[in-house]
UniProtKB/TrEMBL annotation:
This is PDGLE domain-containing protein. It comes from Iamia majanohamensis. GO terms for cellular component: plasma membrane. InterPro entries: PDGLE_dom. Pfam families: PDGLE. It is found in: Cell membrane. It comes from the Bacteria. Its main location: membrane. The chain crosses the membrane at residues 76-96. Residues 10-98 form the PDGLE domain. Residues 99-122 are annotated as: Disordered. Keywords: Cell membrane, Membrane, Transmembrane, Transmembrane helix.
Length: 122
């Protein structure tokens, strides 16, 4: 017999796993440059690089400004990132769910009056 796991429990467990990874695993990741930064160092054009436009934001460069402990700063930065991502994904999910993914017969996107009409009929 298969056990059924509710969507809320599945979502909560996913968040706990993601939070655990960002708090306890990500601070132990290598701080050595990789990818394009490593290639730029190896090939000698790193001096031409400029900071990103968001380099002065509170969570730039995988750290939280004002937190001196590097591991804690990295973990908090990740926690802020998954919180923002979860909120954005949740907002998108509920927006799509509200429209029901339905379109009008004339091909136009559904409007708010369509959903209130559907609610009145149900």
């Amino acid at each position: 017999m298969r056990a059924r796991v509710g969507f809320g429990l599945f979502l909560a467990l996913g968040l706990v796993v993601a939070a655990g990874l960002v708090l306890f695993v990500s601070p132990r990741a290598s701080s050595e440059p990789d990818g394009l930064e490593k290639v730029a160092e190896d090939e000698g054009f790193i001096e031409g690089a400029e900071d990103h436009a968001l380099a002065d934001t509170p969570t730039a460069d995988y750290a939280v400004k004002g937190v001196d402990d590097e591991a804690l700063s990295t973990g908090l930065s990740g926690l802020i990132g998954i919180t923002i991502t979860f909120a954005a994904a949740g907002a998108l999910f509920f927006a799509v769910r509200r429209t029901g993914g339905r379109s009008r017969p004339d091909g136009a996107p559904p409007t708010s009056s369509d959903s209130s009409r559907d609610g009145a009929a149900a």
